[in-house]
Specification:
Blueprint lengths: L7 H11 L3 H14 L10 H13 L4 H17 L7 H15 L6 H24 L7 E10 L4 E8 L11 E5 L7 E3 L11 E6 L7 H7 L5 E4 L17 E2 L7 H14 L46 E2 L7
Parallel strand pairs: 7-8
Antiparallel strand pairs: 1-2, 1-6, 2-5, 3-4, 3-6
Helix pairs in contact: 1-3, 2-3, 2-5, 3-4, 3-6, 4-6, 5-6
């Protein structure tokens, strides 16, 4: 049975049909805003803004995807200076754009449903800004290096237009120019670098809407967008000097590699509590500093020889990347 154009499935279908021509649709959308003297949205931001708002309204993503979308969209909404009194103009322009570019039959019922869902999505975004600490808007990033680590795993190095100020263990929302507006969480596999570059480990999930595009099709020079960083339960408490047991597999190693790198650069050293522990001047380390006796690999340093009496504590695993 074909879904009614005014049903939730109909909204999703009309947005899916519009998505391939998102750049042309965004030109029309921005032109309608300019006609109404709505100047808060820069023209260069219109394609991603429209794609993200439309994806939020269509609502066909999973919970993690919607959370990543709002985590990127709400700070940008605030950065642009948008307020509820702007919603009417935004929704009118959105509805008129979908009416023009979506090939599905357009009816008054469809227009009413898009308008209602558009107001709901923008109100949700506005409320989300009140629950977020001050954070930057999304920023474009260029892929400057691509390395095939395994059949389904690709390592991408990104150079953001504006520096992303993150901590080791945090996660950032990411979307690609190949499917703008669909956001996914990824944890940087490095600590902040002087040149601002970020390394992401991407596993291609066959049914995923984003990961295959990044892992299998993204090329050097291509653009992606990064939202602001968020805590994912893996950042370290600087006042906690207890031993760590870090366990992960596949791309889950990415945030742990960043944590190991962080410990190495901060010079934190830990001693075994055993009676045979070395003197402080030759204290062994589990932070794997640059003077480690074995060379690091792409996934970090080889572990120190285990001590049978060394205490360890576990950290909860982070999000799947």
């Amino acid at each position: 049975m074909t879904p009614s154009a005014a049903s939730p499935a109909g909204i999703c279908a009309s947005w899916t049909a519009l998505s391939p021509c998102i750049n042309h649709a965004a030109d029309h959308f921005w032109g309608l805003l300019a006609d109404r003297r709505m100047t808060l949205l820069p023209e260069r931001e219109a394609p991603l803004f429209l794609a993200t708002l439309g994806s939020l309204i269509a609502g066909d993503d999973d919970h993690a995807g919607r959370t990543a979308l709002l985590a990127a969209f709400a700070p940008t909404y605030r950065h642009l200076g948008l307020q509820p009194y702007h919603h009417e103009v935004l929704v009118d322009a959105l509805t008129a754009t979908v009416a023009r570019f979506a090939p599905a039959p357009w009816t008054p019922a469809m227009a009413e449903r898009w308008s209602r869902h558009g107001h709901h999505a923008l109100n949700l975004t506005h409320r989300a800004t009140g629950r977020l600490t001050a954070g930057p808007a999304w920023t474009a990033a260029e892929i400057i290096d691509r390395h095939q680590a395994a059949d389904t795993i690709t390592i991408l190095t990104l150079r953001p237009r504006h520096r992303v100020r993150f901590e080791a263990g945090q996660a950032v929302p990411v979307t690609t120019s190949r499917r703008p507006g669909v956001w996914r969480w990824y944890s940087p596999a490095n600590t902040p670098r002087p040149d601002g570059t970020i390394e992401l480990h991407i596993r291609a999930i066959t049914s995923g809407p984003v990961s295959p595009l990044l892992a299998q099709h993204a090329t050097v020079g291509e653009r992606v967008w990064l939202g602001p960083p968020y805590h994912a339960g893996l950042t370290l408490d600087p006042s906690d000097h207890g031993d760590l047991l870090l366990a992960a597999g596949g791309t889950g190693l990415a945030p742990l590699r960043a944590l190991v790198e962080h410990l190495a650069t901060t010079g934190i050293r830990r001693r075994s509590p055993s009676s045979s522990a070395p003197a402080p001047s030759t204290t062994s380390t589990t932070a794997s500093p640059s003077t480690h006796s074995r060379r690091p690999t792409r996934t970090g340093w080889p572990s120190d020889p285990p001590s049978p009496k060394t205490r360890s504590s576990t950290r909860p695993p982070g999000p799947t990347c």
